[in-house]
Write a structure and sequence with these properties.
The chain is α+β, with helices and mostly antiparallel strands and 402 residues long. The protein is 50% helix and 18% strand. The chain has 2 domains: 4-47 and 273-398, no CATH class; 66-254, no CATH class. Helix 2 (15-46) packs across helix 10, helix 8 (272-306) packs parallel to helix 11 (365-391) and helix 10 (321-358) runs antiparallel to helix 11. It holds the Pfam family MacB_PCD.
């Protein structure tokens, strides 16, 4: 404690440099704290289970070139052929490819004739009874669709399926008491839709959608100008199946444009922005930490050169190397502590603004404290080498010009 008064006096004489480092530390903490929360949030989003056997699934989209194309006949013939390919577990048609960013949604209600504000939104798929096995998802309650429930309809028909299978997440949203199976949902047409099955999980079409995981499936084929399939291969045989599917579809009907992708590619594209943000913010965190370390090293070396005479006098009066090193480390700790205290307040203010305006995650106290301790450790580590160098200054060298 006896060093505190001369330390504060020295800092006051060099207050501009000390203030710059403190402000730099404060800004670094504010940025690093909020960036860390965003990185954690994006990493958690990417790590969410999809509910599907993503690594084993191939998606197909085709567009016929002739105007009188028989979609329902082509779908049946294609799927029969695809299921006979060695390595294929199952295949089904689908209105949209999962996690592709392309999909449709609908508002659902617990009672007919409800106000639009009372509804809950879910991603919807028109697909076949094979979709559970083709996607590798798990039916945890109820039953699958039956062939008799399958319908072919034109979008102009405004068809409403009498049955649906929903994800557990959406079932819990609609019926928090846990009795969703056998209950009825309603859309804007007010036709009752019975929940006949519940699957464990399906992320849906939009991975960045706040309601991702709210999904409902209908047993139907929409008769439109193109078709889509999802095909699940045995583990390790996806690429082999992909080539076979592409060749056989082209052989069966060469008068259409076929586009094939793996669901892994859809996954990577869906999370491309999140992955980019994680990389950019991680680089920003590393760069800012490096810059603040360089600033502390430079400032400490500068102060040591300015105080060589003072250090020499203290050594001549009996100060040990440990005393000199401790002096500069404590001085650095005082500056860092001031900057971190200011930075913690700035981090909370900045986070409140981001939460209010950009729907970013809140900054927990635990994350802020962890970032503060890391920056404090970096500050002390950066000052360690200059402090050790100051301790090696001999009294004779320091006082030679006196």
């Amino acid at each position: 404690m006896f060093e505190l008064k001369p330390m504060l006096s020295a800092l006051w004489r060099n207050k501009v440099a000390a203030l710059l480092i403190a402000v730099q530390l404060a800004l670094t903490l504010a940025i690093v704290g909020n960036a860390s929360v965003i990185v954690d949030d994006r990493q958690d989003r990417i790590a969410r289970p999809t509910g599907m056997a993503v690594e084993d699934i191939v998606s197909v989209t085709f567009h016929p070139t002739n105007s009188d194309f028989d979609l329902s006949g082509a779908v049946q013939a294609d799927l029969d052929m695809i299921r006979r390919i060695p390595g294929v577990i199952n295949a089904t048609h689908t209105s949209h490819i999962p996690i592709s960013g392309s999909g449709s949604s609908s508002d659902f209600y617990r009672e007919p004739n409800q106000n639009s504000l009372d509804g809950e939104t879910a991603n919807i798929y028109y697909t076949g009874p094979e979709f559970i096995e083709a996607l590798g998802i798990k039916l945890i309650a109820g039953r699958n669709f039956t062939p008799a429930e399958m319908k072919i309809f034109n979008p102009d028909d405004h068809y409403t399926s009498p049955v649906t299978i929903v994800t557990q997440q959406f079932a819990d949203v609609m019926f928090p008491d846990g009795n969703a199976l056998g209950q009825f949902l309603y859309t804007g047409k007010n036709d009752p839709i019975e929940i006949v099955g519940i699957v464990e999980r399906h992320l849906g079409a939009w991975v960045t959608w706040p309601l991702a995981g709210n999904v409902a499936f209908y047993p139907a084929l929409m008769d439109i100008s193109f078709g889509r399939y999802v095909i699940r291969a045995e583990p390790g045989k996806r690429d082999q199946v992909l080539k076979q599917v592409e060749e056989k579809l082209a052989q069966r009907d060469s008068q259409r444009v076929i586009h094939i992708k793996t669901l892994s590619e859809e996954f990577d594209e869906g999370y491309a922005k999140d992955n980019l943000m994680v990389k950019v913010l991680s680089a920003v965190i590393a760069m800012l930490t490096f810059i603040i370390a360089l600033g502390i090293v430079g400032l400490t070396f500068f102060w040591i050169n300015q105080r060589r005479k003072q250090i020499g006098v203290r050594r001549a009066l009996g100060a040990t190397r440990a005393n000199i090193s401790r002096y500069f480390l404590l001085e650095n700790c005082l500056i860092a502590g001031t900057g971190i205290a200011i930075g913690m307040a700035a981090a909370q203010i900045g986070n409140h603004f981001m939460v209010s305006n950009f729907s970013q995650p809140a900054l927990p106290l635990s994350v802020m404290l962890a970032c503060s301790l890391i920056l404090l450790a970096v500050s002390l580590a950066a000052a360690l080498v200059p402090a050790l160098r100051a301790a090696n200054i001999s009294p004779a060298t320091a006082t030679r010009s006196v």
